[in-house]
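Minutes, methods subgroup
Present: GH (chair), OT, SY

1. OT presented the first of two proteins processed in the latest run. Sequence and structure tokens recorded below as shown on screen.
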Amino acid sequence: MLALLATACAAPAPPVVATPLPTREPGVLSVVAFLDLSGPRSALGTAQRNALQLWSEEQRVRSVPVKVRTVDIGDGDARLLLELRRVAVDEPVDAAIIGTPVVWDDTLGRALDLAAIPVLFTLPLGSDPITRTGGRWGFALAPLTTRLAASEIDDAMRRGALAPSLVLTMPPTRVDPMAAALDAELARRSLEPLTHVALPADGSVPPVVRSGLSVLRSVHCTAPPSSCAAVAEAARAAGAPTFFYLPYTTAPAEVGERRDLASRAVWPGSGWTLPFDAPPVMPVNRARDRFLRAYADRWGAAGTHAATAYDALSLLAAAADRGGDDDPAALRDALERITMPLIASTYSFGPARHTGPDPADLAYLRWTGSAIAPALAPFLGTGLATPPRPTASP
């Protein structure tokens, strides 16, 4: 017995086998999309998920196949950071799409540096990613909030509706980039700042807003349209002429379900997403018309964000086809060399510019009751013109 015990103690320890680290699938472009599918922006997230699904179904034979999965992060910034760490360490992918509102701070920037993959943002950011921590990996596919604020003030001045007006925001649980951009643009022009009113969580109309409806010319809503619908109902009941500027993040479904809001609201978006038969008639763009028809047949009118999500996959696929499929850094470099007309805009990036959409593609939109239309005269004054579109099919 003692001999056996001594032999066992002297036996070499079993070798330690390292657990293999997860690796990316070779020869395939793997993309993850972080969307709000269960929070206050679920209409926005659902529209983008539908577009990503449509792109995947229409995918032709490609030199680099594309695989896409979506992750619901709700309305949580912490969940987004957690998921970015996951794709950096546990479940590597080649690129990511973020389709929820974010505030770009150093924490997000460090998370992007850790992930070290191209990340395409489909919603507005406060500044060009390349100027921020982690920005070498970020690409903006929507206009910056500074551009949106300037165009909104321009439009309100053209309509004679800049004052008196106010800004409706969500309760101040986080920074509101659009509200801050409006303040900064008014200060830059030496104009009076607008009063900010936070909407209560119960969806009621704040007393200060109700009492001012008789004189308010416009309301700038940076909250989700559903939160501003009660104020529009109160304006109709009071016979007030007040109309609403809704945020860029507005999805057509959010307005179509609320008649009082739809009848007096405009919002900024891509002029390229106007229906193919809407006036003014534009040159044929077959890829765009095909997308609008296919999306409308299944889910209703395609808004700006559905088109932008579709474009995000097109951009990544094009970059991979141009030699960016070997590693994320090569994919990023290929994106920086792209100038391409797609569905929502013509995108152009460079090493010193990671904001891609053409500012001229921005237009003001409205809901007719059945479709998106340009917010032109006689509806609420003169408005901004619909931008021109390229004559060649992308």
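2. SY then presented the second protein from the same run.
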Amino acid sequence: MKIEEVLIDTYGPLVPLSGLALILDRSPSATRMFLRTNCNLARQLQSVKIKIGRRIYFRVVDIAKILESNVIRDRDVE
């Protein structure tokens, strides 16, 4: 199963900030702080952020692409 399929089965088309925190294995407050940093992953995640009212969501398709590209890049470094 691809990352995208697993995330869609779990969260649907949009992942809330609390779901992104679970995916990244961080607390929601640590995820909020991380998204304010200037690293490559945080910038990629900020670019796919959707705000609906006061809530923050992320598209599953975009999250899967970001995670897959970072996993492949990390594997190439080793």
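Chair's summary of item 2: The helical segments are 3-11, 17-23, 28-35, 40-47, 60-77.
Next meeting: continue with the remaining queue.
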